[in-house]
Amino acid sequence: MQKIEGTSRNLFICYTPFHCIVSLLLQITYFQEESNEVVVVSTMNGFEQVGKSIENTEIFSKVHYVDMGQLQGRYEYMKATFSPTYFMKKIGFEIKKYDHIFSNNLYGDLENAIYYFNKNAEISMYDEGYSTYTSDFLYAIKKFSFGHKFVRSCSRFLLRRNYIDKNIKDIYLFDPDLCIQKMPFTIKKILVGNDELNVKFLELIQKIFNTELVQDEYQQDYIFFEECFAEDFNNNGDLEIVEKIASIVGRENLLIKLHPRDTTNRFIRLGYKTNKTFSVPWEALALTMKKMPLMCITFSSGAALNYQFLTKKKNRTILLYKLMPDDFIHMTAEQLEWFNRYTKKYGKEICVPESMDELRVYLNDKRV
Prior knowledge:
Elements: E1 9-14, H1 17-29, E2 35-41, H2 47-57, E3 62-66, H3 73-82, H4 84-91, E4 100-103, H5 109-116, E5 122-126, H6 135-138, H7 146-158, E6 168-173, E7 186-189, H8 195-209, E8 222-225, H9 229-233, H10 239-249, E9 254-257, E10 273-274, H11 282-288, E11 295-298, H12 303-306, E12 316-319, H13 333-346, E13 350-351, H14 356-364
Parallel strand pairs: 1-2, 1-4, 2-3, 4-5, 5-6, 6-7, 8-9, 8-11, 9-10, 11-12, 12-13
Helix pairs in contact: 2-8, 3-4, 3-7, 4-5
């Protein structure tokens, strides 16, 4: 399927496999008749293999590979933040002219380096899960280090740079009704597509992620989604609750889906089955699975919910965020409000237990 060259040259930037899924969906629903290129970044596991698979579909006219590992040490990162020319040279990204840039990273150095050479390009953001609907997304720069913000300010002043967060045209969301914050730009709804498009979309997902090859890793009735908090904050707060869940459903019936960014498998030494493949996102698996697990269990993983925007296939999902340990990282008020809105709208098969006794009741409910 050769890409048709169109009047607009678009660039989609992807840091995760789910970004690839959303970019693919936008491409075949909104921008099919335009010239579309995609960037796959080394922040996703197996990014080169994912990129090669995307190339093989010929759905994008070009696939770019960005290895952020080319930036070594704090000095190089700061220099890349300051100088777009240095950044692009260091990562080996060919400078081109684009009419439209798509990303989810509102304050990303990569996006801003590309934008520096494309000052007339339109900028669009897209959905990556519940954080996109809250001020965590709009004001993420507040969490940047002082040094990062200082270098960014110097670059703005000395190079007369204009950053993308001040020039967003619109954002594409799966469900605009779930927005907690009023967006300062136009909101557009991501179209899931008609039956013909859905068939095409599923075929592309299978080709890109080879989902049939890893479905055997997901044979258990219960899947617990590990969060990335252990990698980010050296604390997941989940081992104790996983042990309690296993005592109820049986350890042999529980699979731990490891978070792709966590570098240590904390569960296999305790006798739990874990997934072996990290480059295939749950959203892609759920779309193509012949038999869904009985229940997905998570504190607050977006992956356990995102797929429900894309398919009519459902399973029971248990959200444990109300059972997080007292000394653990708790969700913000806005995130809690998003979950409340989500469960009210999509919550027929979503359970939010407020106690272990309530969780035990949900886990023992074997209805399909």
